[in-house]
């Protein structure tokens, strides 16, 4: 792979079958964003959907010379955005209420291909942190009607659509400014509104009930507002059509709900939208552009600049299975090549977008998650080593999970400022005073840090607290998490806490997928877990006692039954004079599974006898006869095998 080649070139090298496809059907690629952009109109095409007349009126106040046009069965309004100097053409369509109507219209707009940005602008009910008139730009839209009803209880199953990352980032910038607050319709009264970027709920009902509102806040604790069209709009988000939902809070979603505050809320949302579009033009479309042969052009041509190519490239890494493999080597090679090709400003933009892309695990499946993490870690390592002007402290506040995954590397953690390092650890396992469960990707990074001794003792203690809170199912996903899973299981089984012990045993020995016998634990780890289970059973943990019955143990492979038998012979000591009443259970389990001979051979071949303390020659015969007696109630063939084992074992024990 040649350094400096664009992503499209590397993709062709990685996938020969794709080369033939591209010859027949050339499609735009990340590396050729500038040629794609030059074919577009010189002006930004924006379509704004609304549901209510007051929303349409509020938007049209920011559109110059808006004129009605017939389009199919609809009347649309087309004009120029005020203050855009003719660079932004806005089409306003009032589609009416509901996600279904909105999704249908959004699909038609996507199919026409003439819109660069698609927005839904209007009002919403507040859920938390909002005053009437405040504005929310949606980072994601959650559909509230997907759920499971069981035993009369409704269990929410959240379904999320992400809004376009570039628009979300511009909205964050607009929300920091106060210019848009002064652009509201003169009739607006009261304190200046504030703007937030966060989750919005979308459904098919108007909420005017305080109890229902509380349930929504409980089931969707991240959500700031609720409305009826955003999910339909966000369903068409993609690399060729960028979407965003912008809402003004018009009521509190309770019995006080009325229509009186709708115009003011719509005005605030429209004013924010107008300023957002001007910011987009200034930040995204106006900077220095890279054209044709790589020469720099500082004149504003209206073409899409490098920042959008960064977003496109990140989306391609996240979605294109043919780009590269998910191996460490290929991901690092691609990251190095991209880093070498970009200038410092573009490298900083990459870091920010990679952190944002990694921040939401729900967008990634296993393959793309591995590839994104490996690519991003390598890119971040280069950025840290070359001391790029990336404000990691700020990124760890805005996108804590994503930025932490990029920085949580043994070779990098020690070189970070102490505050940044603390933020990394807190993002992975929660703050010291309030630990939280790890995410799947967080567990991956923590496992790497632990294996390299990159963490301090205090940080290790924080990791243990987080491990205790993390469900086993999270830690077991993927080979990266298994070292953490072994640590957690070992501590739980040795804790003396019956609930923790029983939960660990149930997970290890679940009938549909016995994790104790998986190849992800090596044989020494499996033996350790067997000893801990037997210890928990002796301590009285009922779950461990149930797991060490004849029927349950008969399912264990011979090496694990051999370990259980040795535990009963020695009780973890270096002699054979400990209580051994459970030996009959293990022998019966081995006999039931047909592996008794194999179990005995495993112990004899392991050299365990030489590990015991020396014994007196005078007591060998008496002790041997006593030990053989434990097989007295077994069938004759089992007695023969057991006697053979005892004879061979005593031959191996050192003599005084």
TrEMBL record:
<dbReference type="InterPro" id="IPR035994">
    <property type="entry name" value="Nucleoside_phosphorylase_sf"/>
</dbReference>
<dbReference type="GO" id="GO:0009116">
    <property type="term" value="P:nucleoside metabolic process"/>
</dbReference>
<dbReference type="InterPro" id="IPR000845">
    <property type="entry name" value="Nucleoside_phosphorylase_d"/>
</dbReference>
<dbReference type="GO" id="GO:0008930">
    <property type="term" value="F:methylthioadenosine nucleosidase activity"/>
</dbReference>
<dbReference type="GO" id="GO:0005829">
    <property type="term" value="C:cytosol"/>
</dbReference>
<dbReference type="GO" id="GO:0008782">
    <property type="term" value="F:adenosylhomocysteine nucleosidase activity"/>
</dbReference>
<protein>
    <submittedName>
        <fullName>Nucleoside phosphorylase</fullName>
    </submittedName>
</protein>
<dbReference type="GO" id="GO:0019284">
    <property type="term" value="P:L-methionine salvage from S-adenosylmethionine"/>
</dbReference>
<feature type="domain" description="Nucleoside phosphorylase">
    <location>
        <begin position="48"/>
        <end position="281"/>
    </location>
</feature>
<dbReference type="Pfam" id="PF01048">
    <property type="entry name" value="PNP_UDP_1"/>
</dbReference>
């Amino acid at each position: 792979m040649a350094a400096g080649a664009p992503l499209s070139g590397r993709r062709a090298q990685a996938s020969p079958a794709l080369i033939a496809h591209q010859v027949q059907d050339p499609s735009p690629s990340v590396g050729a964003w500038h040629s794609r952009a030059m074919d577009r109109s010189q002006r930004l095409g924006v379509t704004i959907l609304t549901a209510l007349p007051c929303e349409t009126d509020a938007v049209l106040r920011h559109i110059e010379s808006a004129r009605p046009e017939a389009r199919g069965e609809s009347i649309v309004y087309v004009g120029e955005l005020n203050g855009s100097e003719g660079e932004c053409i806005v089409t306003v369509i009032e589609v009416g209420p509901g996600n279904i109507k909105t999704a249908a219209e959004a699909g038609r707009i996507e199919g026409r291909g003439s819109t660069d940005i698609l927005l839904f602008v209007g009002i919403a009910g507040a859920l938390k942190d909002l005053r009437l008139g405040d504005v929310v730009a949606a980072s994601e839209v959650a559909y509230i009607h997907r759920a499971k009803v069981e035993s009369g209880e409704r269990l929410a199953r959240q379904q999320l659509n992400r809004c376009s990352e570039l628009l979300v980032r511009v909205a964050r910038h607009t929300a920091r400014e106060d210019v848009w607050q002064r652009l509201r319709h003169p009739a607006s009264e009261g304190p200046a509104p504030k703007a937030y970027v966060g989750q919005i709920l979308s459904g098919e009902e108007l909420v005017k009930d305080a109890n229902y509102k509380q349930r929504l806040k409980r089931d969707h604790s991240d959500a700031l507002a609720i409305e009826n069209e955003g999910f339909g709009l966000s369903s068409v988000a993609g690399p060729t059509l960028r979407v965003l939902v912008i809402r003004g809070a018009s009521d509190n979603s309770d019995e006080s709900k009325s229509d009186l505050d709708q115009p003011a809320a719509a005005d605030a949302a429209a004013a924010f939208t107008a300023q957002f579009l001007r910011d987009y033009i200034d930040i995204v479309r106006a900077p220095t552009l890279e054209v044709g042969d790589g020469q720099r052009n500082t004149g504003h041509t209206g073409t899409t600049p490098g920042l959008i190519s960064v977003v496109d490239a990140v989306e391609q890494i996240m979605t294109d299975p043919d780009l590269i493999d998910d191996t460490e080597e290929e991901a690092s090679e691609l990251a190095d090549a991209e880093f070498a090709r970009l200038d410092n400003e573009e490298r900083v933009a990459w870091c920010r977008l990679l952190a944002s892309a990694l921040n939401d695990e729900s967008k990634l499946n296993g393959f793309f998650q591995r590839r994104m993490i490996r690519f991003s870690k390598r890119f971040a390592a280069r950025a840290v080593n070359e001391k790029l002007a990336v404000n990691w402290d700020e990124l760890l506040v805005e996108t804590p999970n994503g930025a932490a995954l990029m920085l949580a590397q043994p070779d990098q953690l020690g070189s970070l400022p102490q505050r940044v390092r603390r933020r990394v650890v807190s993002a992975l396992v929660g703050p010291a005073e309030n630990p939280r469960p790890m995410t799947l990707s967080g567990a991956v990074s923590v496992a790497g840090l632990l294996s390299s001794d990159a963490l301090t003792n205090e940080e290790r203690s924080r990791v243990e607290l987080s491990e205790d809170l993390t469900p086993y199912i999270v830690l077991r996903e993927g080979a990266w998490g298994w070292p953490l899973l072994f640590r957690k299981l070992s501590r739980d089984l040795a804790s003396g806490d019956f609930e923790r012990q029983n939960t660990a045993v149930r997970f290890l020995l679940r009938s549909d997928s016995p994790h104790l016998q998986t190849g992800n634990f090596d044989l020494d780890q499996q033996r350790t877990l067997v000893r801990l289970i037997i210890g928990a059973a002796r301590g009285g943990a009922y779950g461990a006692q149930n797991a060490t019955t004849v029927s349950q143990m008969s399912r264990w492979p011979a090496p694990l039954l051999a370990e259980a038998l040795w535990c009963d012979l020695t009780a973890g000591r270096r002699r054979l004079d400990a209580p051994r009443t459970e030996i009959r259970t293990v022998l019966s389990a081995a006999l039931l599974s047909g592996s008794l001979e194999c179990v005995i051979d495993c112990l004899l071949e392991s050299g365990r006898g030489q590990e015991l303390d020396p014994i007196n020659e005078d007591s060998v015969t008496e002790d041997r006869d006593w030990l053989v007696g434990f097989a007295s109630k077994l069938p004759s063939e089992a007695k023969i095998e057991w006697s053979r084992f005892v004879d061979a074992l005593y031959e191996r024990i050192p003599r005084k």
